[in-house]
Structures are given as C-alpha cells and as structure tokens.
From TrEMBL:
<feature type="domain" description="Exopolyphosphatase C-terminal">
    <location>
        <begin position="319"/>
        <end position="487"/>
    </location>
</feature>
<dbReference type="InterPro" id="IPR048951">
    <property type="entry name" value="Ppx_C"/>
</dbReference>
<protein>
    <submittedName>
        <fullName>Guanosine-5'-triphosphate,3'-diphosphate pyrophosphatase</fullName>
        <ecNumber>3.6.1.40</ecNumber>
    </submittedName>
</protein>
<keyword id="KW-0378">Hydrolase</keyword>
<feature type="domain" description="Ppx/GppA phosphatase N-terminal">
    <location>
        <begin position="35"/>
        <end position="303"/>
    </location>
</feature>
<dbReference type="GO" id="GO:0008894">
    <property type="term" value="F:guanosine-5'-triphosphate,3'-diphosphate diphosphatase activity"/>
</dbReference>
<dbReference type="Pfam" id="PF21697">
    <property type="entry name" value="Ppx_C"/>
</dbReference>
<dbReference type="InterPro" id="IPR050273">
    <property type="entry name" value="GppA/Ppx_hydrolase"/>
</dbReference>
<dbReference type="InterPro" id="IPR003695">
    <property type="entry name" value="Ppx_GppA_N"/>
</dbReference>
<dbReference type="Pfam" id="PF02541">
    <property type="entry name" value="Ppx-GppA"/>
</dbReference>
<dbReference type="InterPro" id="IPR043129">
    <property type="entry name" value="ATPase_NBD"/>
</dbReference>
C-alpha cells in the first residue's frame, strides 16, 4: 500500500511545473482548498531564454540541465502521487525555433505527463486567476513579468477584460537593449504605447506578479527594515514605488548585494524589472503597487483543481479551516460575532468582515503551551502563508488574538502591529481582543454559557447583562476582564442581572 497522500478535505495532491524563460519551478499542492496550500516548492534558475532574441533558439547550455531538473521534478511529483500533474511552458519554449525539439525531449523523460505550451493570452489568464485567488475584487492592471515576456491583464471588479503579451521579460529586454538601460527604457515605452486599451486602465492599482517583481519587493523590504518579511500583498504608494524603481535602476549591483536576504540570482535582472515597472507606472498613472505571490501556478490550481470552491471568500475560508483544525468549536465563532457587534456600532463592511474572521480564529491557540499561547498565536496569524490578508489585516488579527490570550501590550513581539497599524486600528484590535477574552471567560468556550449574556453600550457605559439563572458564570475574573474591556473602549462598566 502506498503512502497516505490525502490532503485538505480528504483529496489527493496535485502538481504543476512552471517552465519559464528564466527558471523552472515545481509546486505540489495539498488537497482542495480556497487558499492553495503548497507542500513542496522548488525553483532552479536555468535562463533558457538567454540569447533567444539574437539566435531564435533556447539557450543551448541550459537545455541539458533543464532535462535533468525536469526528470527530478517528475520523480518527486510521481513519488507524491500528485494528480493532476502538468507542465506549463511559457514564452521561451513557445517562441524558440528549437522549442518543439525541446518538448519532444521532455516527453521522453516525463512519459504520460501533459506538457502544455501556453499562448501569451493563456499565460495572462492564468496569472490573473492567481491574483483573483487572493484578491477577488481586484480592480486595475495585472503585470506578470517573466524572463521572456510581460503579460498584462485588465481587471474590473474581479472580472478579466483585456489581455496581451509583450516581449519585455527581463532576459529578453536585456538582450534587445544590448545591456543598455536607456535603450531598454525606450523599448518599453514603444511596446506599451502600442497597447491602446491601457488608456482605459488609468488611476488604478497595479498588481505585480513574477519573480523579478518579487525581487524588487524583497529589496525594498530589506532596505527600509519593513517589519514583515512577506512579499504577498506588500503595498507601496505611488511616490514610494517610483522612488524604489529609480533607486534600483541607479544603485548598481554592488550596492544591492549589501542588502540582507536579497535574491542574488535576480540582481542582474533587477534594473530591467524596475525599468518596466517605472514605465508602466508612468503609462497608467497607477494609484498603488500591490505585489502578489499568487500567479500562474495558483491560477492553474484554481482552474484545474479547486474550481468547486473558487467562489468562496478566501479570508473566511482560511479562518474556518484553521478553526476546524485548531479550535474547540465550529459553532461558537458566529455567536461571538453577534456578541461583540454592539461594541462597534459604526464599523464599516470591511471592519465587520475582519471582526468575523477574528472570531473564527479566536480559539486557534487552544492546544499551545499556556506560557507561549499569546506569542505563538500572534506569530501564527501574522506569518500565515499566502491567503488574501493585507499586511494591515494580518497585523490587526494577530494583535487581536494576542490580546485575547492575555498579551502585555509592551512586549517586543507586537512591534509589527505597532508599525503597521494606525492609532485607531490598534485601539480597535485591542478592544476586540479584550472582548473575546471576556467572552471566553464568561463562556468557557461553550455556547451554552454564552447564551443568556449580552453586551450593551449606552451613554459611555458598557453593561454586561446576565439572564436569570446565569449568575453562576459571574466571578472576579469576569469583572476584571470586563473592566479591561471598558478601559480599552474608554467606558465605565457595570454588570446587570435581569
């Protein structure tokens, strides 16, 4: 009998090889989930597309290594019993004159594995689907940069509209410009000017996908000592984005090498990626940059594996999954959302949604050591892989749950939340955390004890009401935690029996 390879929801694993102009990557996903769960992710830089502009052929030096790497990836995916398992080849393979010969060689080494050569439009479609995986209502322009091409996709409130592919991948742009950044800038402007529908993508967000763009984000994170070393949904204002691009273009390789954690294999590509970004920002007058880790591979997963759950909300889905895996009750969270609602009468739709997510996550530390429960929960939520939480949402949720487990606000590990949240957001997170802490003290984590109690805010007085017969759950700890909630809300408190 083979190994148990079932994943989330009892479904088996799936795998995709992304064979690009710069690198090849194998990702193995676990089960079917609204938030793709990679359990294996390995990349090898091959630079198959180097010299393609001049020769029209794949890099001859890279082809033998590509065959070795693909055979290894095939063995890994087969060993994990991944199904479906597919190879997606992009710009270099589809444009090279020896592309068919290369694919024939691959087929002999990966028997039975589908090898698809994506058109530029198909590549763009997968990339946009990947972005929508984490940001279902994305509105603006997706730019997916590879080694050989740049895919552009217009999104309008989560719908894919126009798409095109341009020969502006970092390797090809370097080749076309003969290593001259000024010439590269002119080439980018010329190619972008021919995309007429970009006139309709003005003053909106720019969603950046692809390893070369991710490298820019990593450099900026290191350079600014940003408090969260996560590229996914890292956001920059337009002025900051322009300054970052100009800095990378002019910095020089030696200066970039000094940054901690910089992907060194991307240093040669960085000025070209920054040039493309700078000209895109100028062409579209973008209102902000959003870096996305989810792209072609996640788009393939959502289309070919997880289509049945694609319409689910990604934030709600991950919160419910974590509650099922780590919490003690799957019915209490909705009751907690109702119970805490009176504390925040003026919250908007986004804040209401985030409070609901916090309620679903409110017991994920139940099995951690009590001395480390607050810190462990804080780090678990702050550093979650993937998912559709902005960095501010991560900071809010992690702070809320640390307070729910009794964190002292002076502890050093809360520093990311202090830096990422403004004063109002920080205060709301603390208040919600105190409310959840009170709720679990009152209820012991059971709906039966929470029923018959409610909170009421009126004339700056916070009242905790107990129905007749519920006084058994009152006590000193309840009074103390009610007072802490009142302090967080700047209200006086009282307990009332009815």
């Amino acid at each position: 009998m083979g190994p148990d390879v079932t994943g989330l929801g009892g479904f088996r694993r799936s795998a995709v090889i992304d064979l690009g102009s710069n690198s090849v990557r194998l990702v193995v996903f676990d089960g079917i989930s609204r938030n793709p769960a990679p359990i294996f992710n390995e990349k090898v830089v091959l630079r198959l597309g180097r010299g393609l502009n001049a020769t029209g052929r794949l890099n001859e030096e890279a082809v033998p290594l590509a065959m070795e790497v693909m055979a290894r990836f095939n063995a890994i995916a087969r060993g994990m019993e991944a199904s479906p398992f597919e190879v997606l080849a992009t710009a270099a393979v589809r444009d090279a004159s020896n592309g068919p010969e290369f694919v024939a060689g691959l087929k002999s080494r990966l028997p039975g594995v589908p090898i698809r050569i994506l058109s530029g439009e198909e590549e763009a479609d997968y990339s946009a689907t990947g972005v929508l995986c984490g940001i279902p209502d994305a509105n603006g322009l997706v730019a997916d940069i590879g080694g050989g091409s740049l895919e552009l996709i217009r999104l309008e409130n989560g719908r894919k509209l126009n798409a095109c592919t341009l020969p502006l991948g970092v390797i090809r742009l370097n080749d076309r410009a003969d290593g001259d950044l000024a010439r590269a800038r002119a080439l980018v402007d010329e190619d972008l000017a021919r995309v007429g529908w970009l006139d309709d993508v003005q003053d909106q967000d720019l969603y950046l996908v692809g390893g070369a763009f991710r490298a820019l984000a990593r450099m900026q994170i290191a350079r600014t000592a940003y408090p969260l070393n996560i590229v996914h949904l890292y956001r920059l204002a337009p002025d900051t984005g322009r300054e970052m691009a100009d800095w990378i273009i002019g910095a020089g390789k030696r200066s970039l090498e000094r940054l901690p954690g910089v992907p060194r294999k991307r240093l040669e590509d960085a000025p070209y990626a920054a040039t493309v970004l700078r000209r895109l920002m100028r062409r579209t007058r973008s209102t902000g940059l959003v870096f996305c880790v989810d792209g072609l591979r996640e788009g393939w997963y959502m289309r070919n594996v997880a289509a049945s759950v694609a319409d689910n909300d990604p934030q709600d889905a991950v919160a419910r999954e974590m509650c099922c895996m780590l919490g003690r009750s799957v019915t209490l969270p909705e009751r907690l959302a109702e119970w805490t609602a009176p504390l925040f009468p003026d919250e908007g739709q986004v804040a209401t949604r985030l409070r609901g997510v916090a309620c679903w996550l409110s017991d994920v530390g139940a099995h951690d050591h009590p001395e480390y429960r607050a810190e462990q929960t804080y780090l678990r939520i702050l550093r979650m892989q993937g998912v559709g939480f902005t960095h501010q949402a991560r900071a809010f949720l992690s702070l809320t749950l640390a307070v729910r487990y009794g964190a002292d606000l002076s502890v050093a590990y809360l520093q990311p939340s202090r830096q990422l949240l403004d004063q109002v957001q920080f205060g709301r997170a603390v208040a919600l955390g105190q409310a959840l802490r009170l709720a679990y003290t009152v209820s012991g984590g059971t709906e039966a004890l929470l029923d018959g109690t409610r909170l009421e805010c009126e004339d700056r007085v916070l009242s905790l009401h107990f129905a007749p017969g519920r006084d058994v759950v009152q006590g000193e700890s309840v009074r103390r935690r009610l007072e802490r909630l009142g302090n967080a809300l700047d209200m006086t408190v009282r307990i009332r029996d009815h």
